[in-house]
Design brief:
There is one protein chain. This protein has one domain: OB fold (Dihydrolipoamide Acetyltransferase, E2P), CATH 2.40.50.140. It is 4% helix and 45% strand. The chain contains one helix and eight strands; from the N terminus they run E-E-E-H-E-E-E-E-E. Strands 1-2-3-5-4 form a five-stranded mixed beta barrel. Strands 7-8 form a two-stranded antiparallel sheet. The radius of gyration is 15 Å and the shape is globular.
Length: 141
């Protein structure tokens, strides 16, 4: 396995905002959430992922979602964050535009609080994906 020390100066979960692109981050897959087939026939596998600053839902496209599993520690390069149904989601880069490298398994400190995907993001413009136009509200559940 690759040493975590080889990957310096990456973004932390707590610093992810709507509209962020080119995200390089080290995360652990905490919990499998769901697998969904999308319109074009490909599929998205959803995991709760995190680091020592919090957690967020992350979507993995197609075969990558079938390969990764809970407990995997991954380096994501070229990921991006966007709002889907008023919740912040981390997406892996599609179609070879980024990298996913398995670094290790099981041993990484993480926090399930705050869960950035449990916060509600509201915008005056339904089609607006600009991070400066979203107001974050705590999800009270």
């Amino acid at each position: 396995m690759v040493s975590l020390g080889n990957f310096q100066n990456n973004k932390k979960v707590k610093d992810i905002h709507p509209g962020d692109k080119g995200i390089d981050i080290i995360i652990i897959l905490i919990e499998y959430l769901n697998k969904t087939t999308i319109k074009n026939g490909s599929h998205i596998t959803q995991y709760l992922v995190g680091d020592d600053t919090g957690c967020i839902q992350c979507n993995f496209y197609d075969d990558i979602g079938d390969i990764v599993q809970e407990g995997d520690i991954l380096f994501l390069s070229g990921a991006y964050a966007s709002i889907f149904k008023q919740h912040l989601i981390l997406y892996t880069a599609k179609y070879g535009l980024g990298k996913i490298i398995k670094l290790n398994e099981f041993f990484m400190t993480f926090s399930k609080i705050p869960n950035l995907s449990k916060e509600v993001y509201a915008s005056d413009n339904k089609d607006d994906h600009d991070k400066n136009n979203y107001n974050k509200e705590r999800y009270n559940k």
